[in-house]
Amino acid sequence: MNTNSPNKLNPADLRPKSGLRSRLFAKLMAGEDAHDAAIAPYKRMFLSELQGNVLEIGPGSGPNLIYYAPDVQWIGVEHNPYMHDNLRARAASQGRMVDLRTGHAEALPAADQSMDAVVSTLVLCSVHDLDVALAEVKRVLKPGGRFVFIEHVAANAGTGLRRVQNFVRPIWSAVGDGCHPNREIEQALEKAGFASLHIERFNTDIPIIKPHIAGYALK
């Protein structure tokens, strides 16, 4: 099987962020936060039932690890190396073995059709190329495999919140590790070519990024 992504990008697009910014963001994300608490019910719903080889994109410091079944073969692809120590420490405290790899959503370091599931929580907002990332998800999933996602999404076009999202996007992205509050993730999922798509829409109390989706897509 091919272990290299055919979805090539300019290497400059995926160059590591500055060490200082990456370190600071890792410190900010080291603990639990209100956002994680707001989406915890959906994590329990969608992550606990996964089995086999599960690849998580952008796991950060590992807040999702507690939701997986003990026998899941967990692989994490995290581009920020300063997150790795915190994640490994969290995994060790749970007695969980992890396979943590450095990489990007647009070039997943995994073989074709090797994963039973792929997971993304609050990550697709910040990938460099969303369409390429979703193509990579499909590439590594086995036939019938499941892509589980929990993401904040753009508010409806023409609404006041969407105008606010559009206005704050440049500075929001600069301080939020590339996060786009106005990214149309649901529309990208719909055109990605999955065999089926299940989406639940909900709102949180978090300003700017209230609209969320959770669900799964089948290859």
Share of residues in helices: 25-40%
Strands ordered across the widest β-sheet:
3-2-1-4-5-7-6
Q: Tell me the Rg in angstroms.
A: 16 Å
Tell me the series of helices and strands, N- to C-terminal.
HHEEHEEHEHHEE
Biggest sheet statistics: 7 strands, mixed
Strand proportion = 15-25%
The helix count comes to 6
Q: How many extended strands?
A: 7
Mean pLDDT comes to 88
Structural class: alpha/beta
Q: Determine the N-to-C terminus distance.
A: 18 Å
| Residue runs with pLDDT of under 50 for 5 or more positions | 10-18, 20-31
Could you explain the architecture of this structure?
This protein is of the alpha/beta class. A 7-stranded mixed beta sheet has the order 3-2-1-4-5-7-6. Strand 4, helix 4 and strand 5 form a beta-alpha-beta unit. The longest helix is centred in the last third of the chain and has 16 residues. The chain is globular, with a radius of gyration of 16 Å.
Question: What tags apply to this protein structure?
Answer:
single chain; 219 residues; alpha/beta; 7-stranded mixed β-sheet; 31% helix; globular
Topology:
Elements: H1 19-28, H2 34-47, E1 53-57, E2 73-77, H3 84-93, E3 98-101, E4 115-121, H4 130-140, E5 141-152, H5 160-175, H6 185-190, E6 196-203, E7 211-218
Parallel strand pairs: 1-2, 1-4, 2-3, 4-5
Antiparallel strand pairs: 5-7, 6-7
